[in-house]
Amino acid sequence: MTEFTRSILLLLVLLNPFLVIVYLIDIVQKLDNKQFRRVLIRAGFISCIAFCSFAVLGDRIFSDVFQVRFASFQLFGGIVFLLIGLQFVFRGPTAIEILRGESKHIAGAIAMPVLIGPGTISASVVIGKRNDILISCASIVVAVMLCILVLVVLKFLHDVIRQKREELIERYFDLAGRITALFVGSVAIEMIMAGVKTWLNLHWS
C-alpha cells in the first residue's frame, strides 16, 4: 500500500461518513437532495483548504502563528470531543444540533465542527509530515470527496427508506447517536492522553 493510499484511508477513517450522517440528521431531514449536495460541496471545499493548510504548515501553524504547543491543541481538542460524547449520551443525535447552533451559513457549520475537528486536523499534520506537498494535498482532496460522495448516497437511501419506515429510521439514528458517544469518548480520552504524553516529552526533553 502506497503512502498516498495510506493518507487517504487515515483521513477518511477519521471523517467517517457513516458517523457524520448521524451528526447531520437534522439537516438530512430538512434539505432536499440538491440542497444537501450543494451544502456538502461548500463544506468540503472549506475543509480541504483547512486540512491542506495544516498539512503544509504542520506544527509550525501552532508554534509560530498561534504561539501554542501542539500538545495544548491535542488536550483542548480531546476535552471538546469528550463534551460532545457526553452530550450524545444524554441527548442523542440532537446534541450536535445544539453544539452547532442555528447558523445562517450551514456549510460553515458542517465544516466546523463536524468535518474539521481535532482528529482530522491532527491527521492532516501527520499526512503533511509523511508526504510532499502535492501528494499530501491530493490525498486530502480525494478523502474529502469520497466522504461527501458517501454522505450523498446515505442521504438518498435515508429519503427512500424514511417514506416507508419513518419510525424505524428515527429509532436507528437515536440508537446510533448514543453508540457513537462510545467511539467519540474513546477518541477524546486517547487525544487527551496523547497530548499529556507529548507535553511531558517536550517538558522533560
UniProtKB/TrEMBL annotation:
It comes from the Bacteria. It is a multi-pass membrane protein. Keywords: Cell membrane, Membrane, Transmembrane, Transmembrane helix. The keyword rRNA-binding does not apply. GO terms for cellular component: plasma membrane. Its main location: membrane. The keyword Cell inner membrane does not apply. It is found in: Cell membrane. The chain crosses the membrane at residues 6-27, 39-58, 70-90, 106-127, 133-154, 175-196. Belongs to the UPF0056 (MarC) family. This is UPF0056 membrane protein.
